[in-house]
TrEMBL record:
Name of the protein this chain belongs to: DoxX family protein
UniProt keyword annotation of Transmembrane present: yes
Stretches that traverse the bilayer: 24-44, 56-73, 85-106
Keywords for the protein's UniProt record, in alphabetical order: Membrane, Transmembrane, Transmembrane helix
Highest taxon of source: Bacteria
Provenance organism: Sulfuricaulis limicola
Length: 117
């Protein structure tokens, strides 16, 4: 599981940077890619197995997933062009990595609660 968490963290940091850099590259600002980018960087950066980082990951990862969903909705609602598609091959991997990190944080919290009784 340690290797899978490490791969998920690398994916999250990379995709978070892509989301933030994409705004700079295209010269636009949108709140949903900003939230998903920051969420990805934060989710990938907190590698400690501490109680505080696990609680923060349980907030950051779902926020990133919701931001990606809101961005996809905005993309399809505003751009009515034939052949239009959202970047699902990249985003599905990002969402899966965020959800896996959240699962790892939840399992760490459960483990800590069981140890403390």
């Amino acid at each position: 599981m340690h290797t899978a968490i490490t791969i998920s963290r690398v994916i999250c940091v990379f995709m978070g940077i892509v989301h933030l850099f994409g705004q700079l590259f295209f010269g636009i600002f949108a709140i949903t890619p900003t939230i998903s980018g920051i969420s990805g960087i934060l989710a990938g950066s907190f590698s400690k197995a501490s109680y505080t980082s696990a609680k923060l990951l349980l907030l950051v990862a779902p926020a990133g997933v919701l931001a990606i969903g809101a961005d996809a909705y905005d993309y399809y609602a505003s751009d009515q062009i034939p052949g239009n598609y959202y970047a699902w091959p990249e985003e599905v991997v990002f969402v899966a990595a965020l959800l896996f990190i959240a699962y790892g944080a939840l399992s760490r919290l459960r483990q800590r609660n069981e140890q403390n009784g």
